Amino acid sequence: MTRGETGQRAMQRAEAAGAADAGGAGAGPPRGALSLDPALSRRRMGSGALRHLPSQSRGRPRSQSRGGDPQVESLVLDVPPEVFVLRVLLEETGETFEVKNCRGDMTVRELKEELDLIAGVPMNLLVLRYLDQGILMDDSTLNFYDVVPGGIISLCVWHHDGWTDLVPAAAEGDISKLSCLGVDDDSPYQTANSLYLGEKHWRAWVAQRAFVALYVASHRGRLEAVQYLLEHGASCLGRSPMGRTPLHVAVAMGQSDCIGLLLKYGAPTLAKDAKGTTPQAIARQLNHRKDERQMFLSYWMTKSERKDPKDPKDPKDPKDLKDPKDPKDVGAAKAPQSGVSNSGSGSKGQS
Question: What confidence score (pLDDT) does residue 64 get?
């Protein structure tokens, strides 16, 4: 590049800079830039533009203190309570039950143990679902499934082997349905499972179905159904997986008429469940005085029948059991009273 070209370009740059300065003087500062002339700024803004902003305290306002921070308060409110109530809907019958004292770390199995008594259905037949059709696993906790306090859990009966037909029929107390669902030996009812059972296992299968029907009907106070089942061989001595008898659930629900009928057929008042609770203890906890008195009288009446009140000895003692057909026992029994000796030829002893 020659010296002439360099000088020419320098002159062009100087002319361009001068033109820019001339145009910018009338237009003012660029948009968004601060004005360098304070007098010009005052004339444009006017006297009303000079306003003093109120001084702000350096300290934090009381309403925004840490204790009253709305964000902190919302976090505190979002923490679920340690103990809460759940509602459980039995799909087959439409019944709703409340389970109190639930916790986030409570397992599904523990919830089933409570429903064994509250819903009146043995826990081995229960299937729990929440929000969808997924089955809640026994070892998982309520927190694992994000169960919220006051939520509704779906309770279903195990759908195999005809249980979905038997449980609603027992809950309704419909004898015409129960008689056709395999609760006695004369019922023609069969399932895919019972077709392959031998006679011994088939009888056990019928006895199990009769017990479940008695358990469900006793819980709901279906007196006619309870009487029908007891008359057709249902055992009031059967137990659920939690060790509970039909008397346990009848007492828990205050079904006094069913309690009296079960006691008449020999229901044990002191039978302990897996938690060591008896029907009498349940009546005492729930303050069911009438039911507690009824079981107390039944217990002592049964005990008095087993033991003769005139005989101070226990008849169960084998030493006191004498066979009247055995001459040795007859002679031994008469000897102290008549003074007759049992030795030799049976001559009378000297008085």
Answer: 46
